[in-house]
## 1
Amino acid sequence: GQNIDQPTEMTATEGAIVQINCTYQTSGFNGLFWYQQHAGEAPTFLSYNVLDGLEEKGRFSSFLSRSKGYSYLLLKELQMKDSASYLCAVRSSGGSYIPTFGRGTSLIVHP
Amino acid sequence: NAGVTQTPKFQVLKTGQSMTLQCAQDMNHEYMSWYRQDPGMGLRLIHYSVGAGITDQGEVPNGYNVSRSTTEDFPLRLLSAAPSQTSVYFCASSYSRANAGYPTDTQYFGPGTRLTVL
């Protein structure tokens, strides 16, 4: 099976930088996803990492270390609209190929 | 493309009633899945399908049935609703392993169905 851990809640100030960590344990790692979910809405795709290193996409970056079972999502120049839940999901090479989700991190951005 | 659509958006049931949550996608995705989302629990996989005619159980399948007669549709049936099934249900679809390729192998989610069982 898979075990995915991320903090339950984080707070940050508008304009600042925040890093949301995700640690995982899985057999046969085959990719890690980050999704954003605003209250009352469906999750939407943010980033995908399958190799070690940093993937940058505008204000959002995602990092992966497969040897450490560790990823983080970095949000720069925070805006109020970034207040949302951020879901880490891990896919394994065996079985269904359907990702398993962590419990999500609720990010609150203050003015 | 409409993407992934779900109906109904909201539903209230009494204990013991049955109903079907509908899910459809127009992206010709092979993989489809159903999740439930409860406060503090994240998204938990109920059932999934890797193609028409093929379904399998996820993490929390009890009390639910699925079928996949076409590529487009993947309905979720509640056989005898219980208060523990009060939740938000999301359907998702993606390309299969054979056709997957970054960045196209992400899952696309429907808008969700908010179900209350009294």
## 2
Amino acid sequence: DAKTTQPTSMDCAEGRAANLPCNHSTISGNEYVYWYRQIHSQGPQYIIHGLKNNETNEMASLIITEDRKSSTLILPHATLRDTAVYYCIDSNWGGNQFYFGTGTSLTVIP
Amino acid sequence: DAGVIQSPRHEVTEMGQEVTLRCKPISGHDYLFWYRQTMMRGLELLIYFNNNVPIDDSGMPEDRFSAKMPNASFSTLKIQPSEPRDSAVYFCASRSRRSSNEQFFGPGTRLTVL
């Protein structure tokens, strides 16, 4: 079973920031937070990961609370191509047990 | 790089038949994963290999499922005999221990068992 909880669905207007929350109530000290997304009919795609500090890459930003019990994935300027299911995952560095859960279905609205 | 390659992309078969799904990981990757995705159960890890050796097969649903990795560039997932409840999308993924923990997924094989 997935160790994280996410809202089932969200909408976001095109061009606006999409903020996707995730609760990591059982995360342990050596587990990282990973975010993946799955566009319809494709395999999941890695977005970003982090341990304690906030992270940013060309795709998104990741905000992790100080207690690490929650995180937020931020897509700064959502486009229609960002419509997908977004998964947050807790896993050890080098760990291979990814529990994807049900994710958040993000719909970007024109 | 061509990415992870899976074949076939679609497979339709009848109950009781043997099904073989194929995967070519990204060259140089040390780990290979097989996942299954259904509406009911979401995306589940079935088995993964490290340097061609199966490490954890606890997600394999039953003895009808078997996976092999005869070399670093090829893996198979076999279902024998197949059943309608095996209908799903099967994904293969690979990653390198030298990079981040990013898994690269293939396009998947959509299996329909009639």
